[in-house]
Structures are given as C-alpha cells and as structure tokens.
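step: validate -> pass
step: tokenize input -> pass
step: predict -> running
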Amino acid sequence: MEMPKPTEADKEYFRSLVPDAPGVEVKPMFGNLAAFVNGNMFMGLFGSQVGLKLGDADREALLGQPGSGPFGPAERPMGGYVTAPAAWRSSPAQLEGWVAKALAHVAALPPKAPKAKKAPKKAR
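step: predict -> pass
step: emit ->
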C-alpha cells in the first residue's frame, strides 16, 4: 500500500480548514496530517485529498456531490470517511460547513482514552 505525500501547500490548505475550537488539534499521521477532537479523528489529509468523518445522512449527502468518494488507500478506504471534491479547493467556504458537521459529529462521540504506557522492562 503506497502512502501519498502531501505537498507543503496541501498541508497549509488542510490547516486552514481546521476550526479553532476547544479540544481540536492537528497531528502528523503516516506522513500526512489529521485533525482530532477529544482524541478522535474528524478530518484527515491523504496526499492532496481532504477526508471527513460524518454521520450517516451527511455522509450520503456528501457522497452525492460530484468528485467525492471514499477516503484513504484504494485497497482499504477508511470507513465512515468521505473525500471532499477536489474542485472545492478553489472555494474553501464550500467545505467549511462540511468540516463543521464532521467536527460536531465526532465531538459528540465519547473521548478516546489515551493508550496505557507500557511498563519499562526490568533488567535481568
């Protein structure tokens, strides 16, 4: 499975879409970027594609837009996520409402518990 690399312009565009809201943070993920709220991913960057995690009705509505589709590797797309149409890149305002829906949907989920740290191995 090949992971596409985003350009610096792709990363800048992605960051410009991430709302400045409580609990929201951007982290690197597999050479790309992802936006999280309360530890749960609501938006991701895969190469130049922006993907959003939406509720069922919103996901179906976005999939009905020309240029949208599955998000992630073709061999294994991420369930619950939709790639926003690339044509919307020239009009970020078109995407802002969808980003807000993704944030609201994921913010309503229970916070993700941090992974327990492994105990250090004892010397023999």
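step: describe -> The beta strands are 24-29, 32-37, 40-46, 49-53, 69-70, 81-83.
step: cleanup -> pass
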